[in-house]
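DM between two lab members

TW: hey, do you still have the SDR family oxidoreductase entry open?
JB: yeah, one sec
JB: this one, 240 aa:
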Amino acid sequence: MHTVLITGAAKRIGEDLAHHFAQRGWEVIIHCNNSRGDADRLSTHLRNLFEDRQFPVIAADFSDPVSASDAIFSELRILNLCPEVLINSASVFNPGLLADTSYTHLRRQMAVNFEAPFMLMKAFRQYCKKGCIVNILDTRVTSNDSRHAAYTLSKKVLMHLTEMAGLEWAPEIRVNAVAPGAVLPPPGQDETYLKDVVAGTPLKQAVSPGDLADAVWFLVNNGTITGQIIYCDGGAHLGK
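TW: and the structure you got?
JB:
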């Protein structure tokens, strides 16, 4: 049976990805941090739908990337699971101009959005030896808009890591990314925010969680692609 490890799988995009892979016959390893209750409910729900699988939950705090990576792969060894695919979906998204970005704020964004994926990618390569990695970026990587400066910088670095690892780790490990536009309103915002963002894109069409999951699924299943970034953003990156 195919197995995928999805970080941040308890909520939002990660949860949709978990459903997408589960519906296609995969075992899904659900990572969470503060959303353990949501993760357990998702695991129970998926087990009720697909009784041939376990959908294990692994909790780890990405603010300490090394400890989190060690904890996740130690648990995988205990469970005797070796995922074929790693999807780095977990992230933190906070506003702040460059001039307003404190060191603490910068460290938090970098730790969760870049350093934890980096350590997980290295552990995946060492433990699993071969497979596929998909990093979830953001269409902001093509922009120098600094309203979410630390967040955007962390995703830009993850973008370059995707390309470097795609080159260095071939042919055993393929590494790609999807850079979504507005899929869901950020915490504290409503559908009005989403409509305003969509109105400024060439296609003027919202990106659904299913659209994003289809892009990830394509990268997982096309064995001739590595080091690529799919902008699933209604064309938003074209105007940046």
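TW: got it. The helical segments are 12-22, 36-49, 65-79, 103-128, 149-168, 191-199, 209-221. Residues 103-128 form the longest helix (26 residues).
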